[in-house]
Write a structure and sequence with these properties.
By secondary structure, the chain is mainly α. It has helices spanning 10-13, 28-54, 60-78, 88-92, 99-112, 129-135; strands at residues 81-82, 139-140. It has a two-stranded parallel sheet.
Amino acid sequence: MKHPRTKASKREKGLHRKTNHSMLGFTRREIGVLLFLIIGFVVGLGVWMYREHWEPLPQISEEIEEKRQTDEEEIERKIQVSLNQATQKELETIPGIGPMIAKRIVLYREQWGDFHSIDELVNVQGIGKKTIEKMKPYLNINK
């Protein structure tokens, strides 16, 4: 008996066309990831535009830095060292005075007596007028 001749299907011949039901050849998962990224970008852009153009946020870091500097200046004004009573360690806390200069100030005071003005520091080796001007806010002449 002769077998009826059947036509080979397109699939068997390899001629069938795969239909892709997704957009631009992406799978459903890839489309989901792309949509997620696009939506995230748009939301981020919107937040950025809102902050930049409609309601700028205060510059907190600048305000904190200004307050810190003001507080430091206020503390510096309140804390003064007596030039005639300070120890070497106390003198070293003043900007511009290191261990050697502090030692020289103490030795000068022991040799010549109490300072009558802060400007007398110019007589101490290693201290000039500029250094004295820098140190003045931190010094006083208490006996």
